[in-house]
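Hi both,

Apologies for the delay on this - the queue was longer than expected. I finally got the flavin-adenine dinucleotide-bound model through. Below you'll find the protein sequence and the ligand SMILES exactly as submitted, and right after that the structure tokens for the full complex including the ligand.
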Amino acid sequence: MTPLPAPAGLVGARPDLPSRSPWIAQLSPDGPRRPLRADVEADVLVVGAGIAGIATAFFVLRSTSMRVLLVERDRVGRGATGRNAGQLTTYFERPLASIATQFGESLAAEAQRGFDDAHDLLDLMAAESGSTVRIERFTGHMGMSTLNHVTVHLRNNLVRRRGGLREESCVVSEDADFLDAIPSELEGLFSVVPQARIRELLELDDDRYRAVLSDRKGCANSGLLVQQVLAFLETRYADRFRYADGTHVDRLVVGDGGVRAEASGRRIRAGAAVLCTNGFTGHVVEDGHGDRVELDEAQRITGTIGFMAAFVEDERREPAAMSYIRNAEIGGPTPYVYVTRRTYDRPDGEVTLTCMGGPEWPIDHPWAADEPFPGELLAQMDDVVRPYAQPRRPPGLAYDFQWHGLMGYMPGMVRVIGAHPRHGQLLYNLGCNGVGFLPSIFGGERIARILTGESLAPSVFDPR
Ligand SMILES: Cc1cc2nc3c(=O)[nH]c(=O)nc-3n(C[C@H](O)[C@H](O)[C@H](O)COP(=O)(O)OP(=O)(O)OC[C@H]3O[C@@H](n4cnc5c(N)ncnc54)[C@H](O)[C@@H]3O)c2cc1C
């Protein structure tokens, strides 16, 4: 999930393949499009029907009596929410210790607690909506090979410990040549194990890896979840919830105690607007004087395109989430490899689906969902990533799915949740920075609390 440049010398020797996501393949038919056909008023306008927008609508409807209008330019769950790895993970795409250095230890720990607790919010949303989406939970593992990897993650763990949070478990091989160099302040945050245990946890015959960090993980189809929660919201709150798809928000004007929007030729008036657009807005936000309303530079989306491939095995295997750091220092240029394995439901029964990720490219042109998957990149993933995902799988086989999606990165690498500092009617729940499934749900609940008038303590997520 860390950005990396496009591989040099990618020459289209192999045919490009259609982009096909396993999560979109599981969706029910959406039915006809329902664009806005008239001007409309609402208390809250939510823009974007991915996991952030659906979670925001869910919690706002649940904890207020407000009228909510959710507007989506495409169909529900067709953005990053339908094109991710679907891993339930709660880390920041930047070391927690560096967030603590910037914002202070207590705000960093509070932010981490929020992400950790989002597991419960997900369960609440799934249970209350009657969603049938399969949610699997297990312990996931990250392979580390250098002193830098271990000290960075143990320092994160120190922030967790001091903040009274659940600690990640860390084991270091008795054969690690850096064992004696681990700083004494980190003692008690790891245990020493035989190298065979490292191999077993990582399911890998590769003794470069000398340590493992393990934590609570899981996986689910976030696209299917949002489709089902949307259907629930439309029934449960039929009197005050409205959804329009095929409706592009072009312009938002904040001021006069509310927000005015222009969306595919229709006008919307709302008391507040929440942008859940993953940052890729395609719209302009202005104040009443026509001046642009923007966030601090550290909070402006740059973004990358993330690529994934997956293969099916008939043999049932335990669900798993593994990542393998491949550069010597955290933050270096070589992407880490991440693999998720889960039960996948098909009309003819359950199979095991293993998803492989890693490559991310900068965006040099507008992303298009139906753009093909570069054949040469798939061949590279087959060479480099497949041996981590399933060493027994022979090279060169076709993949069952290969797809790409937008990753909303920001220079500050911390999600933005809350009201604009000068325009309280404009709120944000966006900027996944690589990990956005649970954080979007956490953000939705936080937005609902803000809209109920609760005065929240400052947080690392505050828009600036
Ligand atoms: C390849 C890949 C792998 C990933 N893997 C993981 C993972 O394993 N775990 C994890 O936690 N996260 C992962 N992520 C990130 C995660 O998927 C996203 O953070 C999350 O889905 C974002 O949800 P969202 O609702 O913010 O955005 P989206 O799902 O992109 O939804 C935003 C919606 O806003 C709509 N929109 C935008 N502008 C407008 C407009 N002007 N008018 C109307 N509608 C508009 C878009 O059409 C879109 O439907 C991954 C992402 C990718 C791409």
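Main takeaway for now: Residues 1-6 have pLDDT under 50 and may be disordered.

I'll put the files on the shared drive as well.

H.
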